[in-house]
Amino acid sequence: MNNFPQHVVDHGSLLYRIHHAANGAWFFRADGLFRFDLTDRPGHGTCYFAESPLGAFVETLQSFRSISLPRAEIAGRRLFAVKADFALVLADVTDNAAGRYGIDASVGASSASDYAHSQALATRAFDAGFAGIRYHVRNDLSQRLVGVALFGPTGPHGDDLWPGDDQAIGEEIVALACRDLYFRTRGPLLDPA
């Protein structure tokens, strides 16, 4: 992956993740259920973030887009915002120059049945020393929302990895998802706390 396009997340830049309230925010997957999971690098996995709260919402709750999203499902999750503890160099598949390596938009948009290509890319990026992959969020047809798949030690980690701000998902994020990305919700409004 010599000269593969890269993007630097500067020290102190914010990244966002939505997770189940019952679980901690940091979990690096290696089970192959998600797009950029490191399935063949024992001891290493992938934790999924976005560059905006809306990107994290769409990436995490995309399976509810075609049906009404229960507000109880939203209330059972948390929005985690964390500042990068140091600069992160990511393989950038949002850059058209990635096309030189046989990358196209399908790497961020393929269905779960076709993650082999994106997981192979994750392995190559990991082996090349990248901290993760920057990609377009699948269900944003405008391609403005960006996800960040970070590599790290497999499994759950406490907030001591990088402490962040963990809070309820605000109604403003839900309203944006409904207005701009055609999510529909059902149930009572979220508690503003």
Automatic annotation (TrEMBL):
It holds the Pfam family RES. InterPro entries: RES_dom (IPR014914). Residues 15-156 form the RES domain. This is RES family NAD+ phosphorylase.
